[in-house]
Specification:
The structure holds two protein chains of two kinds. Chain A folds into two domains: 90 residues, Elongation Factor Tu (Ef-tu), domain 3, CATH 2.40.30; 123 residues, Nucleotide-binding domain of ferredoxin-NADP reductase (FNR) module (Rossmann fold). By secondary structure, chain A is an alpha/beta fold. The longest helix of chain A is centred in the C-terminal third of the chain and has 14 residues. By secondary structure, chain B is α+β, with helices and mostly antiparallel strands. Chain B folds into two domains: 190 residues, no CATH class; 118 residues, no CATH class. Chain B has an eight-stranded mixed sheet. Chain B is globular. Chain B starts with a strand and ends in a 7-residue tail after the last helix. The chains are: A alpha/beta, B alpha+beta. At the A-B interface, strand 6 and strand 13 of A face strand 4, strand 5, helix 4, helix 7 and strand 11 of B. FE2/S2 (inorganic) cluster binds next to loops of chain A.
């Protein structure tokens, strides 16, 4: 009988440097296949034996049938080790874990607004590319994405080369401070979202640092959005990924199993402990 | 129903030892614990062990898998082995009930096969409690110490042990030692059950009620100001979680053996400050928040996710073991409305 805690071996086949502290790793199985199927928003547990395991959101879209990608920020043991890994390095992988963005229900036929700050784009990249793939099933897509500086924007090339050239997608980039060689918007994400004055018929997905989420949420509310239109994805410490080690709960919900995707009104009913 | 004399019980253990590892409660140097039976091992007077039968199924530390690494490559070695067949004799009603609570966690999909395997190979022989401790409150959770569950239920009455098979697994064990047992009428234990009811009526915590707690009460209890005072002296030592037969939190760790990497799991405690600590923050920074988590989990979150079942069996271990005398009983009394628990 298969045991959920026993992973399989994966191989890193590509390492892309995104920002000074974010790299994107491409992972396949030893025989060159995708490790498992997943839904947009789900996570996987990666590990390096002797260093430990950690949970990461799968940043590639489920529509990619060849491999999975993980955009990982250097922060703690496992990520530091991964950042020093080279192509050909084997790791272990298990999953997929958690629920997913409601691409078949709440998102269906809707205009979608994605708002991300910093590494917060990583969990959204999967769902953004998923809805771009099934474009007929969704309306217009807006992406508001901000970071400290131009260099800190994750996936900058994909954003410029693919998303900005997709007629269905409007990309709104912003950086915190003026910078040479940047003629785009300057300012914090929450303010930019308010300035852009989006119509309230959109379904929104938010991901980024807690402070960004808090102020963006306030901004969206002042524009007339309700909490039931807004989704986010959570990150807490995890060990098992299957709702058993007792670690990642917010009230009675386990983020590894019942999350990581939550609708804002449902999240606000849970204790404020995250 | 069957019975055997106190002398013959050792013959029963001996006979069963050829097919099973038989663990029985013994008392040595003030410690009561399960010991693997061999000729000469003597049963404790009181069967309630310091640590519960949980340890057989969810041990404090347990190997999960091995890794061999060479250069850039990794080999995963599945170390799972079929568990031995074993019998635990003398389990009290509360500790047996705790296993059914752990089942709700470990046997829920996706099944934890380490736990499942031991559960399948373990036979639980319970014994009715005729001498409960002052800290016991199993009846708060509708656990009947006079009619414990398990694979076989036993009663210790006078010079005899009475056996009642409750499951196929249990009856199979009884069949093996049939020659050592005599048939008796169920009526012979009725008086003992009555006696136990009387003892139960005298327990100091007999009226403790959890009716105010349960599923979907998070908002009612989470922000109660009493948490601050209740948790004030808590040392965060984790003793209460380690002695608790229903606590199930674990950590997964890697150990470099020199020849490879051993991945194992070990008990962890929500009372520890690093339990939820990440590189960039901690969702439960204060001991108050960690303390609250333990009791909210047992009295509210667990019932919310498990058809109203509480994650406490009233075994009283945390009551007698906490170095600052804080415990779930005080939490229940303090947070209950209307003072009927006072
Ligand atoms: S409640 Fe008592 S036993 Fe539990 S962690 Fe606090 S001090 Fe330790
Ligand atoms: S919380 Fe205390 S009384 Fe309840 S099962 Fe655990 S150790 Fe026993
Ligand atoms: S990571 Fe273990 S319960 Fe969620």
């Amino acid at each position: 009988m298969s045991e959920p805690l026993i992973p399989i071996v994966g191989v890193i086949t590509d390492v892309r440097i995104d920002t000074p502290d974010v790299k994107t790793f491409r992972v396949v199985t030893v025989d060159g296949k995708k490790a498992f199927e997943h839904k947009p928003g789900q996570c996987a547990m990666l590990s390096i034996p002797g260093i430990g395991e950690a949970m990461f959101s799968i940043t590639s879209s489920p529509t990619n049938t060849e491999f999975m990608e993980f955009s990982i920020k250097k922060c703690g043991c496992v990520t530091e080790w991964l950042h020093s890994a080279e192509v050909g390095q084997q790791i272990t992988i298990r999953g997929p874990y958690g629920n997913a963005f409601p691409v078949d229900t709440a998102f269906k036929g809707k205009d979608l607004l994605f708002v991300a700050g910093g590494i917060g784009l990583a969990p959204l990249r999967s769902v953004i590319n998923y809805v771009r793939h099934y474009k007929d099933q969704y309306g217009k897509i807006d992406v508001v994405y901000g970071s400290r500086s131009k260099e800190d924007l994750v996936d900058y090339n994909e954003i410029i080369e693919e998303w900005q050239n997709d007629p269905q997608v409007s990309v709104h980039l912003t950086i915190d401070r003026e910078q040479e060689g940047w003629d785009g918007h300057v300012g914090f994400v929450p303010n930019y979202v308010k300035e852009l004055n989006f119509t309230t018929d959109k379904t929104v997905v938010l991901c980024g640092p807690p402070i960004m989420i808090k102020f963006t949420l306030e901004g969206l509310k002042s524009l007339g959005f309700s909490q039931t239109q807004i989704f986010t994805t959570m990150e807490l410490k995890m060990k098992c990924g299957i709702g058993k080690c007792g670690r990642c709960n917010i009230g009675s919900k386990y983020v590894c199993k019942d999350g990581p995707v939550f609708r804002m009104d449902q999240l606000s009913e849970l204790p404020d402990e995250y | 129903m069957k019975k055997c004399s106190k002398e013959n019980i050792y013959k029963v253990f001996n006979a069963l030892s050829s097919d099973y590892s038989v663990y029985v409660p013994v008392k040595e140097e003030n410690r009561t614990f399960y010991k693997k039976y061999f000729d000469g091992v003597v049963l404790a007077e009181n069967f309630k062990t310091d640590r519960s039968a949980k340890d057989f199924f969810f041990p404090q530390s347990e190997d999960l898998m091995k890794f061999k690494t060479q250069g850039k490559s990794i080999e995963i070695i599945d170390e799972r082995e079929e568990s031995e067949d074993f019998i635990i004799f003398g389990v009290p009603a509360c500790d047996e009930a705790s296993l059914r609570i752990l089942d709700r966690v470990f046997l829920a999909e996706p099944v934890d096969t380490y736990y499942q395997n031991k559960r399948e190979h373990g036979v639980i022989i319970t014994t009715a409690c005729s001498r409960p401790e002052a800290s016991c409150f199993c009846s708060t959770f509708d656990i009947d110490m006079a009619r414990p569950q398990g694979d076989i239920r036993t009663y210790k009455i006078g010079d005899y042990f009475y056996f009642e098979g409750l499951t196929d697994k249990g009856n199979k064990v009884l069949d093996k030692v049939n020659a050592l047992l005599e048939d008796v009428d169920q009526g012979e234990v009725e008086k003992e059950i009555e006696n136990i009811q009387k003892v139960k009526e005298k327990l100091p915590l007999k009226d403790l009620s959890v009716k105010d707690f349960g599923a979907d009460k998070t908002q009612e209890f989470f922000d109660r100001k009493e948490w601050a005072e209740l948790s004030n002296a808590c040392l965060g030592c984790g003793t209460c979680t380690f002695v608790c037969p229903t606590c199930q939190c674990y950590d997964i760790k890697d150990f470099n053996t020199g020849k490879g990497v051993q991945r194992y799991r070990c008990w962890d405690s929500c009372m520890y400050s690093d339990f939820t600590k990440m590189a960039h923050g901690n969702s439960r920074n204060s001991q108050m928040e960690r303390f609250r988590q333990r009791f909210m989990h047992k009295l509210v979150y667990f019932p919310t996710n498990n058809d109203g079942v509480f994650s406490c069996v009233g075994c009283g271990r945390c009551v007698s073991k906490c170095p600052i005398s804080m415990n779930i009983v005080k939490v229940i009394k303090t947070l209950s409305k209307g003072g009927e628990n006072e």
